[in-house]
Every structure is written in structure tokens, then in C-alpha cells.
Amino acid sequence: MPKHWYDLYDHKGYGVNGKTVAKMVEKDELEKFIEKSKDPQWWRTITDDLNNKQVRLSHGDLDMIQRIRKGKVADKDFNMEDESFYYEHDTTGMEHPFSTYEPKRRFVPSKWERLKV
Question: Disulfide engineering: 36 pairs with which of 27, 42, 55, 109, CB 3.0-4.6 Å?
Fold first, then answer.
């Protein structure tokens, strides 16, 4: 369900057991500014709306985000040049029976067939 449906309510939806899930206490801009000035690592903290908590990103998380932004593979230990990465399968003798389309003239009766009818 879209989150904006619960903007007017004091909860953010319902849990698995059917009870309401409370919203996180929203801080005003002054509290956010004071928190940023006290915490030098404020830029690493994100809000997890699904689990209703604040999460601090680790060095591994930040490295993965930077690799994804650069267009690389997310896992730095993954080797694209490794030959076991590619799937190879012998396809000889497995041609598809409908690999070419039948011409339209095969389905239309010929001139002589029309004359017989």
C-alpha cells in the first residue's frame, strides 16, 4: 500500500498480526541540525521506513553503493573474467522446428486448387 494513504493517521499501517504499526517520531529541522552538529558521521545514517528505525551504514555498505554508482559489480570479490561465470551448453542437434517462418503461399490455395473447388 502506498505510504501516503496513512499521512493523516497516527500509525503507518498494520502488521502481520493486524495491530497498527506506530510511526517514528518526526524530528523538526532544529533537532535534525543539532543532531548533525554533534555527530560527525551523520551522513552515514539513513532511515529504514520498513523496519521503523535508524541505520548506520558500514564501510562495506558505502563501498558497495559507490561501486554500483560507478556501474561496476556490487561485490568487489566477484571476478567477471572468471570462465566459470559464463554458461556454455552444446546446442548441436537442438534446432527449433519453427526457426523459419512458413511463407504465406503455403496456406493459400493455389490457382489450380481453386479451380478444382
Answer: 42
